[in-house]
Amino acid sequence: MKKFALLFALLATCTGFSQTHDEDYHRMIEAEMKSASKTMNFRVNPNTQNYDVTYHKLEFTVDPAVYNIAGIVTTTFTALSDMTTVTFDLTNQLTVSSVMQGVTNLSFVQNANNELVITLPSTLTTGNSATVKITYSGAPASGEQAFITSSHVGTPILWTLSEPFGARDWWPCKQDLNDKVASIDVHITAPSTYTSVSNGLEQSQVINGGNKTTHFHHGYPIPAYLIAIAVTNYQIYNQQGGLGTVASPFFPIVNYIYPETAASTQTSLAVTPNIINLFETLVGPYPFRNEKYGHAQFGWGGGMEHTTVSFMGGWNRSLIAHEMAHQWFGDKVTCGTWKDIWLNEGLTEYMSGLVVENLDGVPNFVSWKNNKIGSITSQTGGNLYLTDAQALNVNTIFSSRISYDKGSMVTHMLRHKMGDAAFFQGLRNYLNDPALSYGYAVTPQFQNHMETVSGMDLDEFFNDWVYQQGYPTYTVNAQPWGAGQAKITINQTSSHVSVPFFEMPVPVRLTGAGGLTHDVVLDHTSNGQVFIVPVPFTPTGVQFDPNRNIISRNSTATLGTAAFELEQTISLYPNPTNDVITVQLPSDIQLEKAEIYNTLGQLVGTETKAGFNVSSLSNGIHIVRITTSQGVIHKNFIKK
């Protein structure tokens, strides 16, 4: 009796993987890509590197019906070296009317390099601080689309979107990804018929004639590009996050939504507290819980994770989860370089997957992982940690297949390898590391936290899955082996020469009569490795990785004596050989393909005929993966 089991791609679909999800997912990535594309030709202004900004008071007067801004920006900064002038980034399309230090007017110049250069009244020595107040106005530069006026169903709306270097188009700042301001106060004055929103917690609203000034305070470190405002006839929808415990007290979720779609939007947002409470349970307290979380609806596709308030162009649950997760992975701890982008996008997308696992159940999570694996393995290569050259290409940085999909699945495989307790504790330790928290991190720092908590050496894992490319294809052969045992043999080939062999814990499921199942995880460290495992029933079937915990493609699992009988009936002749070798098969078995690999796991040839010439191969042992009409086996031969 011959029994074969082939692992087919899962075809199940669920609500979270509808066409709408796919459209929103790719629109979100496109939006993040468009934002990042502005950085490719940007260079940090060397004239702003001699000071640290510690505080901004931002006073903006705007009208969403008018493309204009009038502002007063009060900035406190600390000298990193002696300085007689201070330079801010500001488009020269905005006009500065005065600069004050206390009651003293300071001289200044706006130059052709979009700089505001202020002459200080005396030398500011290293380590000392000063405060300047800048008054300006005008129509912001439109090239970066950082300041937008538009409308929704005829009602004016204004929003800002500064990521990563658009802040200078609407206010004088230090436009530097690596300088997080300790705290800000934002005062927005707009016609009183409108509602204004910004980062942090609303402090007050003051009516002054036909205008209303709304004051927000944000007391956490924040880079200039995450500071944002929006103004329109918002309807406010309040929710509550937090678990109501000492470690997780309640905090407000404040949603600024369009009134014309309020009912449907509230339905979509109903899941928000469940998601944020899940994230708190898994990776620790919401990073800005002393203030708020929330959403502000705006007219751009996708979303933008402004600290404490995500600007949203849609309400798909996966988008809500992704932008929310960025509050931990991206806002609290930010990737230190573009080469480490997977620390932002991969970890965040995996958090979105955890929503599927916990709210929709395991079968839907398996489907989610299967979709990711299908995307990843649609091409044979792709490294997570980018090279210097790749980090200059926005399409590579924001590759949905690599940074998002592979990043999320590699994160899952790390969880699979470490176990849940160590994995989630590692994430919490990473987020709470004083050297990284509300700052920046790179891949080795993330790896160090996961190694420390697990006690594992993860060099091989990170080298194979983060720094190098490709994925394995497994051949699993199993048969009953005496009373209460099964013998399982595992081989693999690699899709990319950069990794000859992926050392991984390989999940195998043995099945029996009446729906019995027995799962084993086998530590696969070499080709041809044999495992004898106890089984509490007689196996009648076998599956490779039924829950889709490994990135792989075209893997097969064969149960019974079939593989072993097949292996006995097929041979390579002559062996050793120096030129021609033949796959010898019985007449009732057809050869479909013979793939030749060297001992590094590199594919060096593919043949469809039984006889082929190997004279061009290097001397030594080679492995042939033989695919036939009755299964797949591996044979070795020696090239002389």
TrEMBL record:
This is Aminopeptidase N. GO terms for biological process: peptide catabolic process; proteolysis. Its EC number is 3.4.11.2. It catalyses: Release of an N-terminal amino acid, Xaa-|-Yaa- from a peptide, amide or arylamide. Xaa is preferably Ala, but may be most amino acids including Pro (slow action). When a terminal hydrophobic residue is followed by a prolyl residue, the two may be released as an intact Xaa-Pro dipeptide. Residues 1-20 form the signal peptide. Residues 55-226 form the Aminopeptidase N-like N-terminal domain. GO terms for molecular function: alanyl aminopeptidase activity; metalloaminopeptidase activity; peptide binding; zinc ion binding. InterPro entries: Aminopeptidase_N-like_N, Aminopeptidase_N-like_N_sf, Peptidase_M1, Peptidase_M1_aminopeptidases, Peptidase_M1_dom, Peptidase_M4/M1_CTD_sf, Secre_tail. Its cofactor is Zn(2+). Residues 572-637 form the Secretion system C-terminal sorting domain. GO terms for cellular component: cytoplasm; extracellular space; membrane. The keyword Hydrolase applies. It comes from the Bacteria. Belongs to the peptidase M1 family. It is an enzyme of class 3 (hydrolase). Residues 316-465 form the Peptidase M1 membrane alanine aminopeptidase domain. It comes from Flavobacterium saliperosum. The lineage of its organism: Bacteria, Pseudomonadati, Bacteroidota, Flavobacteriia, Flavobacteriales.
